Amino acid sequence: MKPTLLVLAAGMGSRYGGLKQIDPIGPSGETIIDYSINDAIDAGFGKIVFVIRESFKEEFINLFNKKLEGKIEAEFVTQEIEKVPVGCKYTPERSKPWGTGHAILMAKDCINEPFAVINADDYYGREAFFTMAEFLKHECADSKFGMIGYQLQNTISENGFVSRGVCSTDENDHLLSVIERTHIEKKNDGIAYRELQKWIFMDTQTIVSMNFWGFTPALFRYLDSQFSAFIKEYGQELKSEFFIPSVVSKIISEGETRVKMIRSDAQWFGVTYKEDKEKAVACIDALVEKGIYPSKLWDNILFNKI
Q: Would you state the pLDDT for residue 265?
């Protein structure tokens, strides 16, 4: 059974200033998602599931259905604030989505095979998809999930703060914990995160999660129970978020499932801020110049060079 790729594309791009999921980056108008899908198809994924918002659903589906028709199966699900378990209550003033854990939960009814999770606005490196596909096909199990880990210094924006899941591992590269740091910045003296009005500096080679995960559908039962508990405790807050690293950390602490940390030297870049786009465009241009991608991506969907 071929694995599925779940693309988290429901973010509204408040720091970016628009729908960065469909903002053109490549020389022929390709988005970052286009390159991820191209790499996933070549790596052997059999289906793409997009998590989007109802407000741009029609535009998004029309755009990607045209590109993917005849190339790979695609499904679309929506993430909305009101999609909470029956009986759970939350503040009606809330406008912020519930976070990445909730986004993944929205795909519960259309994924029945091992699957990878990525962010729509991140470029993970072509080889990372081949590595994850091999893991999903040969190692992933209900008792063993996986995560592609990147060095912190390779994931920082020059234009503002970012959120990262900071990882700790044992001697066998199994995750011990993933702590979501929601405000990490590049400072004059290094890279630091802010906590309780203090700056705490970090090792630049610290491994962080960029939300490139490998799971089986067993994850959904954890998401169900943890999200219900989250809403009961934090549902009246305006900005609380149900992060997937927090879910994984709890799974690890319960001892039922191990999570393999798969180290990657793959090139990563993303578009958190509008100013990040210039760098992303330059990086894609460089990859096209090297022959990693053609200048018109969808004319060469089976292009196979790593």
A: 76
Is 97 a member of any domain? yes
Q: Is residue 101 part of a domain?
A: yes
Task: Kindly indicate the confidence band of residue 16, based on its pLDDT and cuts at 50, 70 and 90.
Answer: very low
Contact 28, 71 (CB under 8 A): no
pTM for this structure? 0.90
In which domain, by residue range, is 274 found? 4-300
Whether the CB-CB separation of 259 and 146 falls below 8 Å is answered with: yes
Q: Is the predicted pLDDT of residue 18 greater than 80, yes or no? A: no
- List the CATH number of the domain containing 113: 3.90.550.10
Is residue 305 one of the residues assigned to a domain? no
Q: Residue-wise over 4-28: b if at least 16 C-beta within 10 A, else e?
A: bbbbbbbbbbebbeebbbbbebbbe
Sign of CA dihedral 152, 43, 70, 295: positive
